[in-house]
Each structure stands twice: as structure tokens, then as C-alpha cells.
Amino acid sequence: MLTLTSAVIVRGTTLARPTPPSTIASTASGANDEETTPIVTHDHQAGLPSAASGARWGRSFHSLAIMLVHNRRLFDLATRNSQRLEFQRVCASVSSELRHFLESQTKLFHPQTPEAVKYAISQLYRLHSGKEAPGVAEVLETANEQKATLWFDEKAKELSVGDYFLWFGKAYGLTFEGESEWVPELPILALLGPAPEELTEMASVARGHAALVRHDGGAAVVMDSHSGFLPAEPSRDEVIYELAYWNDRG
Asked: According to the model, what pLDDT value does residue 202 have?
């Protein structure tokens, strides 16, 4: 059974809004995803299911396995296509300099999302949930988008030398066969080097959803946003930005 949720699995993300299973079933396979349990007839002489009924059981489980694999493959294919289309849309909406930078980078499409990025996102989510996030050096919570973007940009420039993954844009939570997965709306960019000059504009385009993570996960700056209100920083937008930073974590 496939269940999608429209929420980023990070600190401070809007609560998940489950998509109706019936919608997902029809989208993934074009038909209802319910499986009819076969009726077993017994060979009374042997006291065991007959060969015909055994074959029916085998076909049923085999069909179910194929359906699950088929649905997952369809989802992965649809997600990659969606990421490509969204990436093209973003490139068409930014400056020529940023567009050239984005198009020249190595892009990692679903399901190739690096584990280092998923881990960085989970650290921010742990902080939002009131749990400890070992290794996180600094955090920021603000209702000011400009303040959040500048903080993200400044911390990105302090990151140690190395190759980094860059995520920006929204993401979604996916549960498939009991396993949760974080799926970004855009492909992850594999950068050869630390923070690029275009990061300031990119952070603005991200609108509160971005992460710059070293390949080994030992250094990162992560930003997410969600609906909320901070009494100390009243905002008409009612959006809270939450950020975390660590560098050369041992």
C-alpha cells in the first residue's frame, strides 16, 4: 500500500497531509489496489490443498509482488519526471547566471538522494521535535525571511573545504511498505567545492527550504520553514524559519 504525505521531514515542517489511498492507487496502477484473496479447495484424499488451488495461491502472491514492484517503479519514474519538469521551471524563472550554474551541475534524481542530505534534514527535524541532535553547533529560529536567508548564506561561507550536496525547494514524506522516505521536489545538486557565489540568490528562490551538506555529512547548514507565529517577531506571513549549522563534526 502506497501512502504519500505532503510534508517535508524536517524540523518545523507543516504537518503531514495524507493523500487519499484511492487516489494513489489509481494514479500508480490505473486500478483499485485491493487484492482478492483466493479460495482454496482441498484434496480430501491428501488432506492438503490441491494442485489447482496451490497454483491459484502462487499466482495470487506472485501477482501481488509484481503489482508492488510495478507501483514502486511507476512512482520512481513519475517522481524523476516531476523533478525534471520542476527543475526546468525553476531555471526559466531565475537570472541567466543562476540558470547557467544550475544547468552545469551534476543532478541526482530520485531515488538517488544522498544519505548525507537525508541525515542533515533529519537532524533539523529532531530539533523541531524537541529531541537532541548530536553535533549541531548553532541553531536559529526566526520569523524574518531575510534574516534567515542571510544567516544561511553566512554559515554556508564558513563551511570547511570539501565537496557538497545542495538541496533547495520543497520536499515530501513518502511511506511505502512501511518504510519512510524523504523525496525532494527538485533533484539534489552535487557540487565540486563549497558554497557557490550563486547561493544567495538560490537561498532566496528556495523560500525557506534549503541545505548545503558535505558529502560525508560532517558539515552542513540546513533551513526549513513552516506555518507558525513567534511572539517576539510578529509577522503577517505567519511563517517560522528554522536553521541548523555544524562544521567538521567529529
From this structure: 84
